[in-house]
Tetrahydrofolate dehydrogenase/cyclohydrolase,conserved site
Amino acid sequence: MALIECDTGGGIVRPHSPASSSARLARSSPSSAIEAMASTARVARGLGARVATRGASSVPTNRTLSAPAHRARVSSSGRGVVRVRAMSATIIDGKAIAQAVREEVREKVAAMRTRTGKVPGLAVVLVGERKDSQTYVRSKKKACEEAGIESFGTDLPEDATEDEVLAVVEAYNADPNVHGILVQLPMPKHINEERVLGAISYEKDVDGFHPLNIGRLSQRGREPLFVPCTPRGCIELLERTGIPIAGKEAVVVGRSNVVGTPAALLLQRRDATVTIVHSRTPNPEEICRRADIVIAACGQMEMVKGSWLKPGCAVIDVGINAKDDPSKKLGYRLVGDVEFDSAKEVAGHITPVPGGVGPMTIAILLQNTLEGAERAYA
């Protein structure tokens, strides 16, 4: 906690040692103390103050502080000296929000069963024996069970032909009990993923990657039947946290078809002014510093630093990377595309890794499957 003297003329604050503070207090008058506290109040209302810090302060040197950004705690000795402590960003609890979404889905599925005698069905196609893919598929099946959604699955060997995969997709397309089809990616290299994904009926495309759904997402006045799960999860995190989007500057770091581009389109649909930062973007830091909302989905470990951020912005970190850490049992820890420790001292809201965006992806998958069934049984 730094001791700070307020200059009533310009709102400039300077750190002092206890000795120098005592000397200045001896010279201060009651009126100057009142003026100092008034100046501090202006800081707390967001007019801002320039802060120079020493040592291990959590506020970077010469950063402009505003109360909305750091929600500074201000206290006064009554003698013209105030204490200001910068507070870290509010952590967006993706686990809690995802659980709320899943509970909503479970309740609606139960109501559908009561009303129609039917429940949503999700089919997952797995090609090959990748351990990570098998883990993802198991987690999706478990989530379906908990929500009351019927789970279907087909596992094909690594050497399955493309035609064999397409035949499975077509069978699920024709099954009226299946309302969502998901082909687990990546598939073996000899299979054309674009062709397989394009074969899924756009009415059952719960991943939101069918050309018709992506095309509709990109056009004003057209509504896709499904939106990709992770980008939709990012928007849900913002909206359920009460972070405004309309009229705000938003930057998406990354332009992948899976997250970056759909996320930018979703922000644009909600009336944000959107910029995409990618590998050929000059001065990405300067662009990010203008943003009220930053979605990082570039696949580069801790690329976005706290110095890139506008004070008080909202940061959604989609990345998940393994960083060497000998202190951990597995020898690594998970980090995102944002350098969390520095970013949380600048941002107003931020998602952690893990526990931020990740839990939302499966929650939105369940939500998409439910919506497919609601259309089928309307």
